[in-house]
Amino acid sequence: MTVLEANSAASFMQISTSDANLGHIDHFKQFLYSMQEARRSIVKCILEKVDVPKDLILVLESTLRMLTDSRTVGFQRKMRTQFDTFTLNIKDEIIGLKKDLEILSRYKNGSLEASELETVLANFHPISPEKFVEELDACCSFLVDYVESAQPERENRKPLFITDWDGTMKDYCSQYATNLQPIYSAVCMAGFAQEFTRLAAVLTAGPLRGPGILDLTALPIDGPLLFSGSWGREWWLDNHRVVQDEGISEEGIDALERMKDEMGILLKTGEYSQFALVGSGVQRKVDRLTLGVQTVCGHVPAALSERYQEEVRERMHRVDPYNQILVFDPSTELEVEVVAHSSGSVWNKANGVSRVAEIKGDSLRAPGRVLVCGDTMSDVPMVQQAKHENPGGVMALFVRPSEKIRESVLAVVGDPTRVCFISSPDVFHAAAARLLETKSELD
Ligand SMILES: [Mg+2]
C-alpha cells in the first residue's frame, strides 16, 4: 500500500469510528467522500494493473454495511441536522457499492473478463437482463464503427469523444452532493478514452468543485479524460481551473461569490442545513448558483422549501440591494437559480463543445469522427455543433432519451447507423470493456 492509500484507509477508519454520528448529514457526507478517496486509489491500482490492497476493499465493504444498517429502510435513511431530521434516498449510493464489490470480487490476477462485468451489470439493467444483452450487442457494433474510423496513417487521428455526465455516464442520484461514480465505470471510461480516442472530455452542467464533478468522479482528474463544468464554461487543465467568463461582469462574479458565502452561512443555521443534500444542493457555476429546493421523492415539507427560498431571496437582497446584478429564476420544482445578468448570447453546451477542441488545439472538423453522448435536450446542441463542423463524422449515443429527444438526435445526425440509444450508462461501460478486451487480444 502506498502512503496515499494508507492515509486514505486511516482517515476513513477515523471517520467510521464516529459511526454514532453518521446520522448527521455533515458526517455522512465526509464519510462518503472519504470512501470515494478509497475508490480513486483502487481505480489507480487497476489502471496500473497492480493488486488492490485489501484495506481499500474493506473501506468499501464497511461503507456498504453502514449504509444498509437498520437506519435505512427501503433505501430511505433518516438523517439529522442540528435542529431537525429529514429523509434521504440513498439507493444510488448503495447500488453503486454493491456493483463495485461484486465486480471487484471477480478480479483475477489484475484483470477482469468483460463477460464477468456483463454478468454483474445485466442484473441491474432498468428493463431486464435480456434487454441489457440486446442493447450491449448493438452498442458494441456502433462503437466498433467508431473505433475503426481511426486513421492510423494519419498520426494520432483517432476520433473524438465528448460526453455529458449525469444520466449519461453516471446513473442519477437523489442528491448531487453524494452522486459518486463507481470504480468499474471509471475503469471502463479511462480505458476507452486512452485506447480509442485522441481527445475525450466530460462536459457537465454542474460545477467543477464545491462539490463538483472533480470531487464526485472516481477517475484520475488529470487524464485521460478532460473535465469541464458549468456547460463547458470552466475546465480543469494542467491542475488548474480555467474559466470562460466572457459576458459576465466583474460585479456579477463578485455578487455570486458573496451570495455563495451567504448560502454557506445559511446552510449552517438550523433548519436549512439539510438543503446541502437536497437535490442539486448548492452548486456554484460560472454564471449562477443552482440551489436544490425539493427532492425527486418530495421529502421536503412544502412550507420549509418556501421558507428556504424566501431566505435565498433575502440573501440576494443583501448582496444586490437594487436588483441590478442578480436574477432569481425558479427553474423547476426541484431547483431554483440565482443568475448573474449576462450580456450577449446565451451560453449552452454547443459553445462548450467547440471550446473543448480549441482548448486542446484540436477541432471537431474532419478527418475523424466525433462521438457525442448525452441524455437530455440540453445535450442536443452538442450534437448540432458536431454536425455543423463535421457533418459526415458526427455520431451520437443517448441514454434513456424521450421520444422527442430520439427524434431530434436522429434528425440532426441524419444517418441512423451513426446513432445509438441505450437504457443505462452501464451498457456503454460494458461495451467499452468488451472492445478493450478484443483490442488486448489482438495486440
Ligand atoms: Mg445529463
TrEMBL record:
Pfam families reported in the protein's UniProt record: T6PP_C, T6PP_N
Residue stretches making up the Trehalose-6-phosphate phosphatase helical bundle domain: 25-113
Membrane-spanning parts: none
UniProt cross-references to InterPro entries, sorted A to Z: HAD-like_sf, HAD_sf, T6PP_C, T6PP_helical
Ranges of residues in domain Trehalose-6-phosphate phosphatase C-terminal: 161-427
Domain of life: Eukaryota
Name of the protein: Uncharacterized protein
